[in-house]
Amino acid sequence: MVRGSNMVHQILIAALAALLASLEVEAVADVTTPAGRVVGLELDVLGTTVHAFLGIPFAQPPVGERRFRRAEPMEPWDGIYNATSKPSACIQDVAFFGRQDTIYNTWTPDGPISEDCLYLNVWQPTHVPTGAAVLVWSYGGSFQVGASVLDLYDGKYLAAAEGVVVVTMNYRVSTLGFLYTGTEGAPGNMGLTDQAMALKWVKENIASFGGDPSLVTVFGESAGGTSIGYLQMSLDSRDLFNRGIVQSGAVVMPWGRDSASAAYNKTIRFAESVGCPPDKGMDAIIACLRDKDGQHLVDTSVLRDTRFFPVIDGSFLVENPGDALKNGNFKKMDILIGSNTNEPTLFLIEDLPGFSSNTSSAITKEQFIKGIEYYIPGLNEFAVDAVVYQYTAWLHHEEETLYRDAFGLLYGDYFNFCPDVTTAHAHVRQGAATYMYEFAQRASNLAWPDWMGVVHGAEMEFVFGRPLDAALGYTAEEVELSRRIMRHWANFARTGNPNNNDETTWGAFNQTDGGYTVLDTHDPRMRMGPRFAACAFWEEYVNPLIAKTDALMMSQSCEPDTSDARADSKAVFWLLQLSLYNLAAVYVFTLHA
User: Catalytic positions (predicted)?
Assistant: First the structure.
């Protein structure tokens, strides 16, 4: 049965015997929760039994007058709820990735989509006593796409192999999830408060599935990992979970959020573009937008380049993430955080001229510089020069792929590794158990060129145990790696430590020399200082360089335009550059020592 606006038809008043007769393949699992009675599927997985409950509602359908509002709790139901089929994905731009490659298709919902989408799925192991640790998945997709129903996020292998309860949840994305007016009618951050509502449901009901509500770990990738940071910051959600596993999505990544004023102005522009002029006031705008087709709103936001993101609204999120981490204004909790070796290559082939999955992507220096300006528009010309020098001056210039590889390193530092390090340091300062990883395994069945390496999202199939499906063609070593990663994730959810009691292969991150583990098919190994020098370049050099040169340019613009003044200005700029070169040489030595 397809879930749309007819959710009420999922509440079965028929007798259990009639339900049993209607199911032809799997046996039925039956659980009574505070929310109501639920029946699901009984699955044979890895020689054990897992109960799967698919499409349980955790909030009122966000349709009609509830569109753009924060989620409202679901009332308990009478009778039996049929949780034997996947729910619809939330409305989104299913062509968001713009490609038909296998890995993109893996992340794109291929089933029904609907505005009525606030459902979650539960996989319950039956071979462990009650009180199991709970892992709740938050999906990625740049806050524009994503769904809990993807085959990639099937929790059965993780539940069976590690005896943990696995939950995946839908949340609203794009315009319907993050449009902001600053009013109750569209307060923004609906996609985040949806997740908070799902976690509240888990807290209240998961014991009925054998889970321990005091052992809830949220794990998420990309925007899902970033969501963990936001949920950890907000007073409305921080007490709903206990630990976090952040995969390629540190909350201080320099993307994916707006100030309240920027989000408001974006809403005004967007409303005008769909025929809802602002001259009659915000209530009229919201009413007009509620009359529009939801898919049309999402599609228009893409066409008009008015994509909506989480907003620092002063209510659910009261502080910029960077400030929150510096000030300690976030939940003290154990965290496991990391990224993949070649995070950016997946995006470079989409965004930048010269990059392609069909060529070696040997870009020129000019394309390298344009890439810097595209991804990091806040840099002035002096900072751009500094970045070019830092990442290319020490390379072998005869290599045709020099700028390709340098850009991958630059992007990974700026968007992934350095935000990971900043986040890890903040948690260590709070006294929280903190562990870091680098996922470095390129799947053997991946068809993309070798130069792309271990791309964004490559770890997820190993986290969810897909290599354990023999039909997918993974190697024996990859199967073992997947089992090891699932064990680490489950151990962390249980104890706050990814190691078993009898092993210490993964050391904790610390303030002085870092410490992170490399996850691949080789023997477990630790490395020190994940890109510390490069991160110091961005934090301690580039940002002050921008501030000082901008101030200097401003002061020069206010003085008489004499040749002597211009000469003095240039002299100061060159002194700044010279100091950079000396600093960069030290960094290069540190990186390669």
Answer: 222, 343, 456
More confident residue, 472 or 447: 472
Helix (H) or strand (E) segment spanning residue 325: helix 321-327
Contact 252, 423 (CB under 8 A): yes
Half-sphere exposure of 7 (CA within 13 A, CB side): 22
345 and 234 belong to one structural domain = no
Question: Counting beta carbons within 10 angstroms of the beta carbon of residue 108, is it exposed (0 to 12), middle (13 to 18) or buried (19 or more)?
Answer: buried
Same domain, 304 and 342: no
Q: Specify whether the CB–CB gap between 179 and 271 falls below 8 A.
A: no
pLDDT in tens, 449-507: 999 999 999 999 999 999 999 999 999 999 999 999 999 999 999 999 999 877 778 99
Q: What is the pLDDT of residues 527-551, one digit of tens each?
A: 987 688 889 899 888 988 888 887 7
Q: Domains in the chain: how many in total?
A: 2
Write the pLDDT tens digit of every residue in 117-126.
999 999 999 9
Q: Tell me if 540 is assigned to some domain.
A: no
Task: Give the Å distances, CA to CA, from 394 to 68, 256, 469.
Answer: 51, 33, 45
379 and 396 inside one domain: yes
Q: What single-letter DSSP state applies at residue 73?
A: B
- CATH number, domain with residue 234: 3.40.50.1820
Does any domain span residue 1? no
Residue 38 sits in which domain range?
7-331
Please identify which residue in the block is written with the tokens 């573009």: 273
- The set of residues, in sequence order, having a beta carbon less than 8 Å from that of 381 and lying 6+ positions away, is none
- Residues with catalytic roles: 222, 343, 456
Measured CA to CA, the distance from residue 553 to residue 569 in angstroms comes to 8
Name the packing angle between helices 294-303 and 260-273 (round to 10°): 110
Amino acid 12: pLDDT:
42
Task: Point out the domain boundary residue: 310, 331, 352.
Answer: 331
Check if the beta carbon of residue 124 is closer than 8 Å to that of residue 89.
Answer: no
Query: Residue 300: inside a domain, yes or no?
Result: yes
DSSP characters for 352-363?
STT--TTS----
State the Cα–Cα distance between residues 202 and 206, nearest whole angstrom: 5
Among 480, 511, 533, identify where a domain stops.
Answer: 533
For residue range 257-274, what is the model confidence (pLDDT) as tens digits?
Answer: 999 999 999 999 999 999
Q: Which of 206, 137, 208, 124 is nearest to 163 (CA)?
A: 124
DSSP assignment of 36-59 equals EEEEEEEEEETTEEEEEEEEEE-B
Hey, how many other C-beta atoms are within 10 angstroms of the C-beta on 253? Answer: 24
Question: Which of 219, 217, 220, 246 has its CA nearest to residue 325?
Answer: 246
Verify that 366 and 306 share a domain, yes or no.
Answer: no
DSSP 226-290: HHHHHHHH-TTTGGG-SEEEEES--TTSSSS-EEHHHHHHHHHHHHHHTT--GGG-HHHHHHHHH
Cβ atoms 498, 434 nearer than 8 A: no
Q: Are 25 and 77 in contact (CB under 8 A)?
A: no
